[in-house]
Amino acid sequence: MRARDRLLAAIEADLKTAKMPPLSWYDVLWELARSQDGRLRPYEIEERTLLAQYNLSRLVDRLEKEGLVRRETFDEDARGRWVVITDAGRRLRERMWAVYAKSIEANIGCRLTEREANTITALLARFL
């Protein structure tokens, strides 16, 4: 857990230095971008990102305010909602990825051989 916390803190610091939003923004935008039609229901985002519902709700509000996502209704009584990534959300995710990818390499990738990275991946995959 300490290693995870240190690595995430380093990545967050790199994003902040690059004047990018927090990693949680990237996580939500990534899940939306890779989903079918660029949209998910809030509970699907919650499951895929491991963000708590109350945090996710506030985060989606912020993303919507910034024009990065929009909400759409999907059923007859307007209770069901999609969260849909916008073109601006896709562009921001791509800009964030450029920083995030470099940070992953600087903080993780350069410290492992390819074989070690594959071993860690295989071990962690057992828990999924």
Short description:
The protein has 128 residues and is mostly helical. It is built from 6 helices and 3 strands. The chain has a 3-stranded antiparallel beta sheet.
Main features:
128 residues, 3-stranded antiparallel β-sheet, Arc Repressor Mutant, subunit A, globular, 6 helices, mainly alpha, 63% helix
Structural class by helix and strand composition = mainly alpha
> In CATH, what is the homologous superfamily?
Winged helix-like DNA-binding domain superfamily/Winged helix DNA-binding domain
Uncertain spans: none
Q: Which topology does CATH recognise?
A: Arc Repressor Mutant, subunit A
Question: Per the principal axes of the C-alpha atoms, what is the gross shape?
Answer: globular
Commentary on this structure:
With 128 residues, the protein is mainly alpha-helical. It has a single domain (2-125), classed as Winged helix-like DNA-binding domain superfamily/Winged helix DNA-binding domain (Arc Repressor Mutant, subunit A), CATH 1.10.10. The chain is built from 6 helices and 3 strands; from the N terminus they run ααβααββαα. It has helices at 2-17, 23-33, 42-49, 53-65, 87-107, 114-125, and strands spanning 39-40, 69-73, 81-85. The protein has a 3-stranded antiparallel beta sheet. β2 (69-73) and β3 (81-85) form a beta hairpin. α1 crosses α5 and α2 packs across α5. The longest helix is centred in the last third of the chain and has 21 residues, at 87-107. The chain is globular and about 55 Å long. It starts with a helix and ends with a helix.
